[in-house]
């Protein structure tokens, strides 16, 4: 058994510790070693770096029993009634770096939805798509310039998603979806043109999900249905006879634009007993979809047959949904201010595998970190975006991101969040898109 020396080690109580990690690049031998109980995060990080024989010191955090260790080992042992003869298993992870405010873009109305694009044509010049309650979709560069606007919805936009580098889809309070073509010439010049309008829902279309493999779109509606649509208008059926709301005459959204061809859905999936608030495709199977609702239900759908495969009931209305691909988990934001992590597989009995608590109002937006399978961002009506490590469900949020800018009272709701390559992008009641930069792979705290 190895023993780690420390100042006054002979006078210090020692305990056996086993260091484990899920990152093979920084793994050490799993055999227990003796360390002084007066060590905290920094001292333990030095121990692991010593074991790694690392030329450059790497800062680590340590997880024990689903929470970050924020005290000495001795304090943890006493608090949990453990004996110094216990062998503690400490999972070490690279220490996270707090997101930093990068920029914000001012809108004329509330920002309901955001989507960053770094598709092939946007890799060198990333752009951000935003949807607003003024009914206008806007594409921005990171300098805060509006490259182009798309007006055509007759009411506020609720959700926006990129389909590819040259097209995106929006949904609205006017009960419709729209596909738009986006073109840019590499300068500030760009254009947005409507390509198709999809009709079929009988109430607000709250949320969207897209699948590039199948070229399909899922929609969540307040009418209690899940819509399945083709992202290729010419492969869509004719639009049904549904009476849509009368065009507003008050705002720019009412401007007469070119007549847009209308199409219908591939399917309308019924089964929820309340407004559907979130939808998602299974990350590894385009024929499987998920939906969540104000009726507390989490449903899994076979999109080929339109059959509801499984239904699980949570304790509270569910307002948002995101998939965590590598973990095979669904993150579900609730009206009860917390996030539940659900295993959607049919043989998983428990609705919740873990619960993340910390928001003080409804959780209405969720997005997983594309560069770290364990991290998740959430948007709340408490005016914050929070960053979580789902391995540490008992620790609360890693970081809290507040709204920044002049004229804010601190109570403005956040409506949406997306964790992208350019950082954590969010929008809300403050009429702003805000971007907080996050570290790139390899950066250290």
TrEMBL record:
UniProt domain NLE: residue ranges: 15-77
GO terms under cellular component: nucleoplasm; PeBoW complex; preribosome, large subunit precursor
Gene Ontology MF terms: ribonucleoprotein complex binding
Record SUPFAM superfamilies: WD40 repeat-like (SSF50978)
Sorted UniProt keywords: Nucleus, Repeat, Ribosome biogenesis, rRNA processing, WD repeat
Alphabetized PROSITE patterns for the sequence: WD_REPEATS_1 (PS00678), WD_REPEATS_2 (PS50082), WD_REPEATS_REGION (PS50294)
Transmembrane regions listed in the UniProt entry: none
Gene3D superfamilies recorded: YVTN repeat-like/Quinoprotein amine dehydrogenase
WD repeat coordinates: 150-190, 198-230, 269-311, 356-398
UniProt-annotated location(s): Nucleus, Nucleolus; Nucleus, Nucleoplasm
GO BP of this protein: maturation of 5.8S rRNA from tricistronic rRNA transcript (SSU-rRNA, 5.8S rRNA, LSU-rRNA); maturation of LSU-rRNA from tricistronic rRNA transcript (SSU-rRNA, 5.8S rRNA, LSU-rRNA)
Transmembrane helix in keyword set: no
Pfam families referenced in this protein's UniProt entry, alphabetically: NLE, WD40
Top-level division of the source organism's lineage: Eukaryota
Subunit: Component of the NOP7 complex, composed of ERB1, NOP7 and YTM1. Within the NOP7 complex ERB1 appears to interact directly with NOP7 and YTM1. The NOP7 complex also associates with the 66S pre-ribosome.
HAMAP family on file: WDR12
Family statement: Belongs to the WD repeat WDR12/YTM1 family.
Role this protein plays: Component of the NOP7 complex, which is required for maturation of the 25S and 5.8S ribosomal RNAs and formation of the 60S ribosome.
Identification of the protein by name: Ribosome biogenesis protein YTM1
Source organism of the structure: Pyronema omphalodes (strain CBS 100304)
